[in-house]
Structures are given as C-alpha cells and as structure tokens.
Amino acid sequence: MAWTKYQLFLAGLMLVTGSINTLSAKWADNFKAEGCGGSEEHSFQHPFLQAVGMFLGEFSCLAAFYLLQCRATGQSDSGVDPQQPFNPLLFLPPALCDMTGTSIMYVGDLLIIMAQVIVAIQMVLEEKFVYKHNVHPLRAVGTEGLFGFVILSLLLVPMYFIPAGSFSGNPRGTLEDALDAFCQVGRQPLIALALLGNISSIAFFNFAGISVTKELSATTRMVLDSLRTVVIWALSLALGWEDFHPLQILGFFILLMGTALYNGLHRPLLACLSRCWRPAQDSERERLLGGSRTPINEAS
C-alpha cells in the first residue's frame, strides 16, 4: 500500500528533526568552557542534564495539545477530543524506557546497542497504548515528557553527590553536576544555542515518531530511526566530528539486521523464498512421477 502525502511528511519530519536532535547534542559536547568556582576549561559532558532538556521539549507538546483542544472546542470535526478517556499513567513505562535509553545514548556511543533495545521496547509500548486508547500524538509525547522531566530532574539531586570516578566528565567527579553545566553555558553562549536546538527538535521528532507509529507501525518507526543514523554519521564525517573507520559500515549493517530481525522484517522474505522453492520441488516431483515406469507386478 502506497504512503499518503501526510505519511511521507511525517517520515521526512522524523528523519530531519531526529538528525538535528542528535547533531545538536554532539555539537554541545564539542564545546569546552570553564566551570563553577574557576575550574579549568573542560568539555561539556552532562548527559543527564541534556536528557532533562529533551524531556522539557517533549513536555512542551502537552501545552500544544491543550492549546489545540481549547481552539477546537465546539468543532465536531476536530481531531482533538476533549472528552476522550485517558489514563496518563499508561505512559509512565514508556517514559521510563525513554529516559533510560536517551541517557545511555548521551553517555556514550559504546552503549548504543543497549540504548536501541530499550528504545525498541519503548516504541512497542507506545504502539500498544496509542492504538488501544486512540491517544493524540501530542498528548502522548507531552505525557511522556512530563513524567521524564519530573523524575529525571529529581534524580539530578542525588547524582550531584554520587561519585563516578573516570566515568564522570565534570571536575567534581560526580555522576552529574548540573551547576557546572549552567556555569559552562554562562561562559559559552553557543552551548545554550546547541541545547535549544536539541530541546526544540526533540518535540517535533517525538511527535513525528508517535504519529508514524499510529499511522503506520512501530516497525516503520524503527526502520526510519535506523536510517537517521546514516544521516547523522554522514554529517558527522563531513563536519570533522568523527574519523572514518571501515568497521563502522559493518556495525551499521549489524544494527540494521538486528532491527529487521527484531521487527520481523525477515518473515516476508522467507515466505517469498518458500513460495519460490515449492514450485521447483513440485516440478521435480512431477518429472519423477511422470516418467515411464514398469509396474512391479506386471507379468514379464
């Protein structure tokens, strides 16, 4: 079945904004600035604070939903139903998966496979809830953002005191130092620009992602998310943020194969091969049975 123009728009929006989201985060990581208390210049490595900013962007979708709901009051043909029953706690599990997967991806590329698995679980849960309860994409994204923003913001407090050793990227050596991040932003305004790009793009990216899940399927969303990796990789090479290694191609191939197997994309191929193999077997059987043979009991 051919995609509609709206579905093509959603797929394009997901690819573009998703690429901008990751690239803006990588741009912020490339900056160096002094921290609080006159600390030496160091890289902006604050993955959990960046994840909080991501959830803030998602949370903004909830405000957009209620604005559309107010505007649509009295319009019977509106896509936003103010009387639609909905339990927000349904989106707490996918929000937790989103929070964990995003934090892992911001921590480092070495854990990207683990993050992909968690994000896949998140997408499956979203597909189940969106289809079953017919939740508006803006409301789903905003609800996830609300849970993630509140939970991760509270977790920043203990993270400020938890020692992380070499795993940490801040001078205090703790799991996350939000105050150090704000000091660096004050000394290097371009970091704020990168974070703003991250926050704004994630809202459109998640809206497009859940809309793709609702209009098409979670499988299509996972495939598009894998293709987004190609765009990010190519632009990172062009900008000189990464060096080319031949093993990256093999790694991306393995990532695509894993995504395809997880989502069952191999089944149509196996079914096609099975249909092609069966006529060959049937024709061979007909040749064997159709040849001239002498009956065993025939008198000589």
Automatic annotation (TrEMBL):
<feature type="signal peptide">
    <location>
        <begin position="1"/>
        <end position="18"/>
    </location>
</feature>
<feature type="transmembrane region" description="Helical">
    <location>
        <begin position="247"/>
        <end position="265"/>
    </location>
</feature>
<feature type="transmembrane region" description="Helical">
    <location>
        <begin position="104"/>
        <end position="125"/>
    </location>
</feature>
<feature type="transmembrane region" description="Helical">
    <location>
        <begin position="6"/>
        <end position="27"/>
    </location>
</feature>
<feature type="transmembrane region" description="Helical">
    <location>
        <begin position="189"/>
        <end position="210"/>
    </location>
</feature>
<feature type="transmembrane region" description="Helical">
    <location>
        <begin position="146"/>
        <end position="169"/>
    </location>
</feature>
<keyword id="KW-0472">Membrane</keyword>
<keyword id="KW-0732">Signal</keyword>
<keyword id="KW-0812">Transmembrane</keyword>
<dbReference type="GO" id="GO:0016020">
    <property type="term" value="C:membrane"/>
</dbReference>
<keyword id="KW-1133">Transmembrane helix</keyword>
<protein>
    <submittedName>
        <fullName>Solute carrier family 35 member F6 isoform X3</fullName>
    </submittedName>
</protein>
<feature type="transmembrane region" description="Helical">
    <location>
        <begin position="48"/>
        <end position="68"/>
    </location>
</feature>
